[in-house]
Automatic annotation (TrEMBL):
UniProt entry tagged with the keyword Transmembrane helix: yes
Membrane topology per record: Multi-pass membrane protein
Record-annotated membrane-spanning stretches: 12-38, 59-80, 159-178, 190-212, 218-236
Any Pfam family hit: TerC
Subcellular location: Membrane
Family of this protein: Belongs to the TerC family.
Primary residence: membrane
Gene Ontology cellular component terms for the protein in this record: membrane
Source taxon at top rank: Bacteria
InterPro entries reported for this sequence: Integral_membrane_TerC
Protein name: TerC family protein
Keywords (A to Z) from UniProt: Membrane, Transmembrane, Transmembrane helix
Length: 248
């Protein structure tokens, strides 16, 4: 209790908490985009449930990993060397997660550009993903993003309560933002393509980091933000043209 009171009275701890919360929310954007795109392929009545399960499991995974910090830290130690390049468990997990993201986003882009004949003939897109398969893929990426998130948290502060609060707050933000983000992506096909492009970029970033090439997250998110602003301007332009066409 004395430790918690001292922590609460420390300005440094509050700065660390605020910084870590922002960092965890930013890292959670990648996870949330993937969950939104994947759950939008489910029947309407199952989408919200799948999003809640996926994000809840992300919280459980993060808190579970926080309880094994000593083990998580060891994941950064090299365990294998190939052609002079050392790889840790973290590196291999990031590479596997990045490859999965690139494969999944590329597959979704292919389906969007060249849909199956039955999808073209139908007035509504057919559901090509089962509930269990969606949850399984979400959990796989939850694990990758959770490990990255926890290792980032460990590198920013040594206080476990700060890490726990930051993780819980970031997941609550994900829960609140999940529904409107998924609806926005579903209602705007061009945004879906942009989001899939983001996932490819994130996947390549994970692969690069797995091979030891550090990619500053600021550059990645700045590119994402710039692309999102351009797409918002395009959407506003299309909306304005529709209003003008309706008047005439």
């Amino acid at each position: 209790m004395d430790y918690l009171l001292q922590l609460a009275a420390s300005p440094t701890a509050w700065v660390a908490l605020a910084t870590l919360i922002v960092m965890e929310i930013v890292l959670g954007i990648d996870n949330l985009i993937f969950i939104s795109i994947l759950t939008n392929k489910l029947p309407v009545q199952h989408r919200a449930k799948a999003r809640r399960i996926g994000i809840s499991m992300a919280l459980i995974l993060r808190l579970g990993l926080l309880s094994t910090i000593a083990f998580i830290v060891q994941l950064t130690a090299p365990v294998i060397e190939i052609f002079g390049q050392a790889f840790s468990w973290k590196d291999m997990i990031l590479i596997a997660g990045g490859l999965f993201l690139v494969w999944k986003a590329t597959t979704e882009i292919h389906h969007s550009m060249d849909p199956e004949p039955e999808q073209v003939a139908s007035s509504t897109p057919s559901v090509s993903l089962g509930f269990a398969a969606a949850i399984g893929q979400i959990l796989m990426l939850d694990l990758v993003f959770s490990i990255d998130s926890i290792i980032t948290a460990v590198g920013m502060t040594e206080h476990l309560p700060i890490m726990i609060i930051a993780v819980v707050v970031s997941v609550i933000v994900m829960l609140v933002a999940a529904e409107p983000l998924a609806k926005f992506i579903n209602d705007n096909p061009t945004v879906v393509m942009l989001a899939l492009g983001f996932l490819i970029m994130i996947g390549m970033t994970l692969i690069a980091e797995g091979f030891g090439a550090h990619v500053p997250k600021g550059y990645v998110y700045a590119a994402m933000a710039f692309s999102a602003v351009i797409e918002c301007l395009n959407m506003a332009r299309r909306s304005r043209h529709k209003r003008l066409a309706a008047k005439h």
